């Protein structure tokens, strides 16, 4: 379908505009598209009228039976029009759906010629504009609604951001608090581990000099830059104040920890004081070493940095308390050990001088414990001139074993007055121990040198056998059938054994601490003793038996842990 209008006047332009709008409606062009078409066409026609001349408006559209299509509008000047710009103006408008007047589109495009009809047509042509304005009003209401909705959404988003920001801050604060708590827990665990380890080190030794040496090693440089330990030699030993900081002297007198620095330390349980005149530029923490009886000394520390952490200071106070207890225990142990060792030495016999026979004895206490035990040796003469030599070992260690050893030694000397031989003496000691201490046992070897100087009678009760070195250097172990251990709950008669001696012979009596080793047992140790004794010559044994005893002990004890007492008694028959 093609329609054409010639436009010369304003009336022609109005009719053409009205006709085009009606035809567009008839072809199903949407209202907004029709309004846009009418507005652009009006503007173009206004330009044409301004330029003058005759213009041709052409409208091409789909036929009555066609479906969707396109309306093409073109405005061009007539060939004889005197206009400068002859370029055509065109516009294409889609027709998506057929309009209700599509079938009679040829009649729709006619516009009345009379003025009244034209005016009515012009007024009707503005209906599309009214519809567009209504749609615009609806859109404005919709836009206003969406604007308000967007505003509310923005407010919600802002509130959400605020909540998220607050939640983020709370989470960061929670993380920071957790890190602080974890750090504090780790520091507390570290302090407890250090306190436990340091306490184990301090209590591992019963030598107070060793404890005093180890204490600064534990504290420097982790918890202190400098450590000074002032120990009182006696309970009333307080050195002149000039030799120690005033805070240390006050700690010694009051028994309370003192802190001396330019600024107060604020440490729990510690008294603050001005800086020390001896060291004014260094903070000092002076902690008394308290015991159950009286202050033992004062520990003076300077911090590794500017000052101490309060928790570290609390830990140092506890460590000082434990150090004081450890030093006090070590001193009391050393005092008891000295008394026990003095008692042990007093119980040991001074060897008698015997013509034709040299004696040398060695007693070495164990290096662990009280250094006192039940090992003993003895030598004494009988009425007939014979010499009794004995070496024994009471089970156990400590003062109780030493006391029982002295009782057995005294009982043996009393029994020997009757002139009994070694076997009979051991049998009587067995009965005595069973009656006196049913739960205590002992071992012993007794050797009797007869007055003739060439006969040896010996007997053993559960003890390592004697070792005899012959003048030619050969060594024998006197391991004839021994008796059982003294004190066991059975009756026994211990037999004597006799050996003929040659001048130049040497008899070695000893306790198991000399030859027994945990990893190898006792037999290899006895073999080592026999081999070592065989390396000595008769001349050197006769010349200096004391030196020979020392030289014999050195190789045998080189691999010993010294966890048991050692006794050795050498008897050398002169050549």
Could you characterize the architecture of this molecule?
The chain is of the alpha+beta class and 575 residues long. 45% of the residues lie in helices and 21% in strands. It has 14 helices and 19 strands. The longest helix is centred in the N-terminal third of the chain and has 77 residues. The model has no long low-confidence stretch (mean pLDDT 85).
Tell how many strands the DSSP assignment holds.
Answer: 19
Q: State the secondary-structure class.
A: alpha+beta
The percent range for strand residues is 15-25%
Low-pLDDT stretches are none
Briefly, what is this?
With 575 residues, this protein is α+β, with helices and mostly antiparallel strands. The chain has helices at residues 10-26, 31-51, 105-108, 115-125, 127-203, 208-219, 246-254, 310-347, 399-416, 422-436, 512-515, 523-534, 538-543, 545-556; strands at residues 2-7, 55-60, 69-77, 89-95, 226-231, 258-260, 271-273, 284-289, 297-302, 357-364, 373-381, 387-397, 442-449, 455-461, 467-469, 475-477, 497-500, 506-510, 566-573.
Write the layout of secondary structure elements.
Elements (H helix, E strand, L loop, with lengths): L1 E6 L2 H17 L4 H21 L3 E6 L8 E9 L11 E7 L9 H4 L6 H11 L1 H77 L4 H12 L6 E6 L14 H9 L3 E3 L10 E3 L10 E6 L7 E6 L7 H38 L9 E8 L8 E9 L5 E11 L1 H18 L5 H15 L5 E8 L5 E7 L5 E3 L5 E3 L19 E4 L5 E5 L1 H4 L7 H12 L3 H6 L1 H12 L9 E8 L2
Parallel strand pairs: 6-7
Antiparallel strand pairs: 1-2, 2-3, 3-4, 5-9, 6-8, 8-9, 10-19, 11-12, 12-13, 13-14, 14-17, 15-16, 15-18, 18-19
